[in-house]
Amino acid sequence: MQDVQQIRNTVILGHGNSGKSTLAEALLFTAGSVNRLGKVDDGTASMDFEPEEIKRQVSMSTAFNHLQWQKNDVFLADTPGDDNFFNETRSAVQVADSAILSVGAVLSVRPQTEKFVDLVQDKNLPCLICVTKMDRERADFSKTVDDIRAAFKLNPVVLYLPIGAEDDFKGVVDIVANKALMFDDKGGVKAEDVPADMADEVAELRENLQEYVAETDDDLLEMFLEEGELTDEAMKSGLAEAVRTAKVAPVCACASLLNKGTSVILDAIVDLLPSPDQRPAVEGINPDNDDVVERERTADAPFSALVFKTMADPFAGRLTIFRVFSGTLDNDSFYNANKETSERFGQLFVLQGKEQKPVDKAIPGMIIAVAKLKETTTGDTLCAESDKVIFESIEPLPTVISYAVSAKKGDEEKLFASITKLLDEDLTLKLTRQPETHEVLISGVGQSHLEMVGEKLKRKYGVEMELRAPKVPYRETIKGSTTVQGKHKKQSGGRGQFGDCTVELSPLARGEQFEFVDSIVGGVIPQTYRPAVEKGILEAMEKGVIAGYPFVDLKVNLIDGSFHNVDSSEMAFKIAGSLAFKKGVMDAKPVLLEPIMEMEVHVQKDFVGDVMGDLNSRRGKVLGMDSTDKYEIINAHVPQAEILLYALDLTSMTGGQGTFTVKFSHYEEVPASIAEKIIEEHKKAEE
User: Fold this and answer.
1) Are 405 and 357 members of one domain?
2) What would you measure as the largest C-alpha separation in the chain, in angstroms?
3) Is 104 in the same domain as 19?
4) Do residues 607 and 583 both lie within one domain?
5) Does 413 share its domain with 336?
């Protein structure tokens, strides 16, 4: 590895099918890092190497590689474009110094593109825009650039203008150099004069570029106003500074599948995108005193790094991946500031797709992997123990879909042990046990996410999971009051059993759970046996009466009873209490309660009507709406039973543009018609 000034760390972003992985493959091939141009469609891409990715022809996790170009080391992260794996993309952006935004020349800007642009702008990342797939039918560079300009505040400026399109895409014009770069068969270019029929357009774009660059710097603006133009040298240096400070985003054109235009993109990466030390210092907190700490991204600063990804392998063990922010790591240990412990490791690696290449040291900008750490997990900060710092890590996206999970062939222990291993590498995957329904739930950020988890479990650990819709944790309660006797009497030779109690049952306010009052006067029931009545009722409440669900919000007043000097016992009064409860519930207007969830649905204006109508059809109550610059936010209360698989329906309604969060709010009575069906199903199951 070279000096920090000769390192570039960039992440490739874009919606699904925008050509990200193919662009990454072409860049690697042109630079000589791989010996063949891998293709997603035939499963030979070095960046999409997981069997699940090859099968589906879609990136499901961020892949890393690095290449050398013009004596610079370029670290590439190829991220997923699918919403199900958006957390992978967020993590990669967190540790990148710049971004390459991939936008297809046919599909142009898609609604999902906005998510990736938001990531770039939130981090104020320098951005290079690549209009891909220029060789495809109906490819339209000008329209795509106009769409980008209209949709986002990236200040796109054309740096390389395509010569021809579709089958006739044969070169690009370098606007700065005012030269045509014609493609050869090996991914390179040959400089020629600008075609005569493009001269006017190129002249206009060149003037636009000079204006954009001049407006980013007072000295350049003064030169432009006085001279009417910038010198080539001033334009080059001014453009580089404007890109590195995220004031403009240069636009390139390529056909990655044919390896056309990739060499000029590599030139743009090393000439325009920043090295780590050209980015602002990264901020953290000193855990000893909570002071804010700034780390300059230089090799001679104290060592610090952020663990942003973990990969689990049944054979190689756990692979921990981190980005070096500052300092140099050239020994065999570091300090984990989050876990307050030192960790030793055997070897540093840089990732090359599914392979790892050993390196002797790590400096700022490098993406590094180490194997078999014992304590370190995703989100931890690594540093020198003598100079501690903790960097903020991103919170994983909330889960939106849950299923009850079990092993297909009954090997539950192996299944849950295997899922637990996947939890280390996928923070958006959750495994929880529901005490009310006695089910284990697996939760994720989408249907495809959980399907991928299932395929990975089968391939890596040889275990299959079975998913089914989870049970709703209903509750039972009463609306009326009653007084009832519970009597247990049994004689079977020798000592018998006798317990007799009279209780008043009445409802409590929602959420108050249970109250037991002992109103016995005198000794009709000895003090020894009264707690047994309460215990019998509590045990019966756990199993419910009308549909097998836990009973809640009940007040029990023990008012009378009788006992037998010989035959009475705690067990007899426990049974008597249970009998009184079950009998009394049926006389006190029993009802079912259902969990009501608080939902927040984010959609664009066009979908508000459809989403609100759908929520109403699910017995939801829309509470109100809020607005942001980009989204309408619908707030609603909806029964949990109606939204168990809502993520699938919202995706269908909004074309994947809608998102939502959900959390428990309260319990409400189930409508009688629905309650009857639930009770009937319980009776059938009992039979």
Assistant:
1) no
2) 118
3) yes
4) no
5) no
Q: What is the mean pLDDT of residues 306-315?
A: 82
How far is residue 410's CA from residue 494's CA, in Å, rounded to a whole number? Answer: 46
Per the DSSP assignment, residues forming a β-bridge with 263 are: none
Confidence band for 316, pLDDT divided at 50, 70 and 90: low
427-441 per-position pLDDT tens digit: 999 999 988 788 899
pLDDT at site 315: 63
For residues 13 and 100, the answer to whether their CB atoms sit within 8 Å is yes
Check: CB of residue 118 under 8 Å from CB of residue 238. Answer: no
Q: At what angle do helices 232-244 and 218-227 cross, to 10 degrees?
A: 150
Q: Do 541 and 572 fall into the same domain?
A: yes
pLDDT by residue (tens digit) across 170-209? 999 999 999 999 998 777 889 999 999 999 999 999 988 8
What single letter denotes the amino acid at residue 333? S
Q: Output the six-digit token pair for 281.
A: 């210092």
Distance CA 684, CA 548 (A): 12
**Confidence category of residue 2, pLDDT binned at 50, 70, 90:** low
Enumerate the β-bridge partners of residue 514: 554
| DSSP 8-state code for residue 641 | G
pTM of the model: 0.83
The full length of the chain comes to: 687
Give the DSSP letter string of 492-513. Answer: SSSS-EEEEEEEEEEE--TT--
The β-bridge partners of 131 are: 103, 253
The domain in which residue 323 lies consists of 294-383
Share of the chain above pLDDT 90, in %: 66
Number of Cβ within a 10 Å radius of residue 336: 21
- Cβ 601 vs Cβ 616: under 8 Å: no
Q: Which residues of 249-266 are buried (b: 16+ CB within 10 A; e: fewer)?
A: bbbbbbbbbbbbbbbbbb
575, 583 Cβ separation under 8 angstroms? no
Burial class for 572, CB neighbours closer than 10 Å (0-12, 13-18, 19+): buried
583 — phi, psi (to 5°)? -70, -40
Query: Measuring CA to CA, how many Å separate 638 from each of 188, 437, 601?
Result: 59, 20, 12
The neighbour count for residue 53, using CB atoms within 10 Å, is: 21
Q: Tell me how many domains the chain contains.
A: 5
What is the chain's mean pLDDT, rounded?
Answer: 90
The sign one gets for the Cα dihedral 352, 355, 359, 362 is: positive
Per DSSP, 596 falls in state E
Please state, in angstroms and rounded to a whole number, the distance separating the CA atoms of residues 272 and 294: 25
Q: What is the secondary structure of 348-397 as a DSSP string?
A: EEEEETTEEEEES-B-TT-EEEEE--SS--TT-EEEBTTB--B---PPPP
Residue 190's DSSP bridge partners are: 182
